[in-house]
Amino acid sequence: MSLDRSLRTGGNLAQHRNVLKRHERIEKLKAVSNFDESKKPVLGLPKTANRKA
Questions:
Q1: Which residues have a Cβ under 8 Å from the Cβ of 22 and sit 6 or more positions away?
Q2: Number of domains in the chain
Q3: Ranges of H-type helices in 1-53
Q4: What is the pLDDT of residue 9?
Q5: Is residue 53 part of a domain?
Q6: 42: phi then psi, degrees, rounded to nearest 5
Q7: Residues spanned by the domain of 23
Q8: In sequence order, what are the residues at sequence separation of 6 or more whose Cβ sits closer than 8 angstroms to the Cβ of residue 25?
Q9: Is-above-0.85 flag for pTM?
Q10: What does the pLDDT look like over 1-53, one tens digit per residue?
Q11: d(CA 33, CA 19)
């Protein structure tokens, strides 16, 4: 059985997300500031803005 054309997502997975996953936040912090990886805080990572370009 196939899906009707109106029910297909058609790229909704590529839309902008405001919330980043932990590894994405760490990558962004490394690129922007001097993130100390040796401490590896479990809680209390600084907030990172994820603006749509």
A1: 45
A2: 1
A3: 22-32
A4: 67
A5: no
A6: -75, -40
A7: 16-44
A8: 45, 48
A9: no
A10: 787 877 776 665 567 788 888 899 888 888 888 788 788 777 888 888 888 77
A11: 19
